[in-house]
Write a structure and sequence with these properties.
Layout: H1 2-11, H2 21-36, H3 44-54, H4 62-68, H5 74-81, H6 84-105, E1 114-116, H7 120-129, E2 135-141, H8 148-161, E3 166-171, E4 188-193, E5 196-201, H9 214-223, H10 234-244
Parallel strand pairs: 1-3, 2-3
Antiparallel strand pairs: 2-4, 4-5
Region (Disordered): 1-66
Family: Belongs to the phosducin family.
Function: Inhibits the transcriptional activation activity of the cone-rod homeobox CRX. May participate in the regulation of visual phototransduction or in the integration of photoreceptor metabolism.
């Protein structure tokens, strides 16, 4: 029983998988720490131990297997965890893992700002050539029309919060169909996906109070299921937690 337990503990540090279970995470952390260390400030003995603990072994090499298939000693454990520098390195590693996770989970094009469309041709090209998975929200406005400035400001905020949605704006007079977008129907919102109009709202500010903000527009669009699930700002939360420590 003791032999089996000992073998299990020793196997904890075998394998070269990356980001695969506890073994992979431990090895990735050690490799990350070694690469992030300043070569001039780290004692050679410390670098060598970290290198031995992070380098993948050749399973056909008996000597290599014996070198890496061993339990972590108390001295090695303390070597990694005892200094404040190690703590900071672990935070950097955690942040990098979060960034990798977000990159893998976030698919499709990303925008993050409001596109100003100058002509009707540019408007049509945006609708027809954008990827089919992309939701496009267009604000048709005109200077001096009540609510248009506030809606443009709301778009700026929402574009940052929903970078996978393409937010655009265009003056009614530039659409080539100005007679269809008189001041009576502005501001107008048009929502497209896959080249098709899926929703349109004329005089949309009538749905809000006289003074409205990005959250009001967000709630309105969510009522109709026009926005995807909002991204969780895990990276910002991680940074805030680190600042308070």
């Amino acid at each position: 029983m003791e032999e089996t337990k000992s073998q299990s503990l020793e196997e904890d540090f075998e394998g070269q998988a990356t980001h695969t279970g506890p073994k992979g995470v431990i090895n990735d952390w050690r490799k990350f720490k070694l690469e992030s260390e300043d070569g001039d400030s780290v004692p050679p003995s410390k670098k060598e131990i970290l290198r031995q603990m992070s380098s993948p072994q050749n399973r056909d090499d008996k000597d290599a297997k014996e070198r890496f298939s061993r339990k972590m000693s108390i001295q090695e454990y303390e070597l990694i965890h005892r200094d404040k520098e190690d703590e900071n390195c672990l935070r950097k590693y955690r942040r990098q893992c979060m960034q990798d996770m977000h990159q893998k989970l976030s698919f499709g094009p990303r925008y993050g700002f409001v596109y100003e469309l100058e002509t009707g041709e540019q408007f049509l090209e945006t609708i027809e050539k954008e990827q089919k998975i992309t939701t496009i929200v267009v604000h048709i406005y005109e200077d001096g029309i009540k609510g248009c400035d506030a809606l443009n400001s709301s778009f700026t905020c929402l574009a940052a919060e929903y970078p996978m949605v393409k937010f655009c704006k265009i003056k009614a007079s530039n659409t080539g169909a100005g007679d269809r977008f008189s001041s009576d129907v502005l501001p107008t919102l048009l929502v497209y996906k896959g080249g098709e109009l899926i929703s349109n709202f004329i005089s949309v500010t009538e749905q809000f109070t006289e003074e409205f903000f990005a959250g009001d527009v967000e709630s309105f669009l969510n009522q109709y299921g026009l926005l995807p699930e909002r991204e969780i700002h895990a990276l910002d939360q991680t940074n805030m937690e680190e600042d308070t420590e």
